[in-house]
Design brief:
Elements: E1 34-35, E2 44-48, E3 72-73, E4 76-77, E5 82-83, E6 103-121, E7 132-138, H1 146-149, E8 157-164, E9 170-174, E10 181-189, E11 193-194, E12 196-203, H2 207-213, E13 216-217, E14 226-230, E15 254-255, E16 265-283, E17 294-300, E18 308-315, E19 321-340, E20 344-345, E21 347-354, H3 356-368
Antiparallel strand pairs: 1-12, 2-6, 3-4, 5-11, 6-9, 6-10, 6-12, 7-8, 7-10, 13-21, 14-16, 15-20, 16-19, 16-21, 17-18, 17-19
Length: 371
C-alpha cells in the first residue's frame, strides 16, 4: 500500500482569493468507506475540555469548513471548527505549556464499527493548528455519559499515536485495529484548532438489537449495509441512498451524469448479512426532472454468483416513494439496483430479517470484534 502523505508545518497566511487554493490534501485509501462520525448517522461531540474560540460541534459538520476573513466576535476570529485558547505555563520562569498539556474532545460515533482511517482536517487553521494530535477509542455499551467515559477504569485503545500535523491540511492516518468501537477521544497537543474530523470504517451493528427488531432495513448504513460499487458517482455518492431518514434536497440522493450511450447505471450493495427480503422501497424524493425512468432489483447469495431478478424493470415517478411487497421472501446477501437509462434515486430500503446462518455469522463476528 502506498504510504499516507504526511503534512507538517504552517501554511502560508491567507492572501485573498480562494481560501482553499493552497490547501494540502491527498487521495487516501479509506475514504470510500462509511464515515462513522457522520452526524446523519447520529454522531456527536459530547464533551470537550475547552472550546473558547470555536465550538466542538463544528468538528462533525458534513460540509467542508468555511472561511470568512472578515468574521470576528468578542473573543476574536470566529473559525469553522473546534478551537481552544492558547495554553500557558505555570509561571514567568516557565511560560510554555508542559509536554503533557493537551486539549481533548469526546466523540460518539454515529454507528459503532471498525475504524480503518481517520482524517484530522485543519482547513483554514494556518498558524493556530495543534502541533500534534492523537486519537484513542473505546467500546462501551448503552449511552455512556462524558463522566462514564472519563472514569479511571475505562481502557482506551490508541488508534493514532501523538503525531505532528500540518496547518490548512487534510492529515490522514490509516488505522490497524480490528476491534469494534463506539467512542473516540481526540486530543490536540498542546492546543489549537481542528476544522473537521472524519472517521472512516465499517459499521459493526449489535446483533442483539437487530434480533429484537426482527424485521428491519437490511441495507441501511446504520444496520451494517454498504455500497460495494456503482457505475457512476458524478453528482453525488451512491452511499447517500442508504443514509438514515428521507432525503431533504436533491444532492442528498444519488444522481448520475446524463448518458449518451445505450447503457444504464447501477449500484451494487452488500446487506448486513444473509437475509430474507420481504419488501422494498425506491424513493426519488427531490429528484424531479432527473429521477431514474425505470428501475429493477436483482439479488445473489454469495459474491461471484449469478444475479437473479427480484423486482422486474418498473416505471418510477419523480419525487415519489415507491413501495413493493414481494410475493414471497427472497433470500440474498447482495443486491443490485439498475436504473434506466440514467438519473438517480434518493433512497433504497430493503425490509426483511436475517436467516439463521446470517444471524449466526453476525453474532460470531460481534464476539470476534470484542462486542
Amino acid at each position: 500500500m502506498t504510504a499516507i502523505p504526511h503534512f507538517t508545518g504552517d501554511a502560508n497566511p491567507y492572501g485573498g482569493g480562494d481560501p482553499y487554493a493552497d490547501y494540502r490534501t491527498a487521495d487516501f485509501p479509506f475514504t470510500h468507506l462509511v464515515d462513522l462520525a457522520d452526524r446523519r448517522l447520529g454522531a456527536g461531540v459530547i464533551a470537550a475540555n475547552d472550546e473558547f474560540f470555536a465550538e466542538r460541534e463544528n468538528l462533525l459538520k458534513p460540509e467542508p469548513a468555511h472561511f470568512d476573513p472578515e468574521r470576528f466576535g468578542h473573543k476574536g476570529k470566529i473559525m469553522d471548527g473546534w478551537e481552544t485558547r492558547r495554553r500557558r505555563g505555570v509561571s514567568a520562569a516557565r511560560p510554555h505549556p508542559a509536554d503533557e498539556d493537551h486539549d481533548w474532545a469526546l466523540v460518539r460515533l454515529g454507528a459503532p464499527g471498525i475504524v480503518r482511517g481517520i482524517v484530522v482536517d485543519t482547513a483554514h487553521f494556518r498558524g493556530n493548528y495543534p502541533q500534534a494530535v492523537s486519537v484513542e477509542a473505546v467500546s462501551l455499551p448503552g449511552s455512556p455519559s462524558p463522566e462514564d467515559l472519563c472514569a479511571p477504569d475505562v481502557k482506551w485503545t490508541t488508534l493514532v499515536p501523538r503525531t505532528a500535523v500540518g496547518g490548512h491540511a487534510a492529515n490522514g492516518f490509516t488505522v490497524d485495529a480490528a476491534q469494534r468501537f463506539t467512542h473516540l477521544r481526540v486530543s490536540q497537543h498542546p492546543d489549537g484548532g481542528i476544522a473537521r474530523l472524519r472517521v472512516y470504517g465499517e459499521v459493526a451493528p449489535d446483533p442483539a438489537w437487530l434480533t429484537a427488531l426482527g424485521t428491519f432495513d437490511l441495507v441501511a448504513l446504520e444496520n451494517g449495509g454498504r455500497v460495494e460499487d456503482a457505475s457512476d458517482r458524478f453528482y453525488s455518492p451512491a452511499t447517500n441512498t442508504i443514509q438514515p431518514g428521507r432525503s431533504h434536497k436533491m444532492d442528498d440522493g444519488w444522481e448520475t451524469r446524463r448518458r449518451r450511450d445505450r447503457g444504464n447505471d447501477w449500484i451494487h450493495y452488500h446487506l448486513v448479512e444473509e437475509a430474507e427480503i420481504r419488501a422494498a422501497e425506491i424513493d426519488t424524493a427531490y429528484l424531479k426532472g432527473n429521477s431514474a425512468g425505470w428501475a429493477s432489483l436483482s439479488v445473489r447469495d454469495t459474491a461471484g454468483g449469478a444475479w437473479t431478478e427480484m423486482l422486474p424493470r418498473t416505471r418510477l415517478q419523480p419525487d415519489t416513494n415507491h413501495r413493493f411487497v414481494l410475493p414471497e421472501a427472497v433470500r440474498a446477501a447482495e443486491v443490485r439496483i439498475d436504473i434506466y437509462p440514467d438519473g438517480g434515486i434518493s433512497r433504497l430500503r430493503l425490509f426483511g430479517s436475517l436467516t439463521g446462518q446470517g444471524a449466526a455469522r453476525l453474532a460470531a463476528r460481534h464476539i470476534e470484534l470484542g462486542g
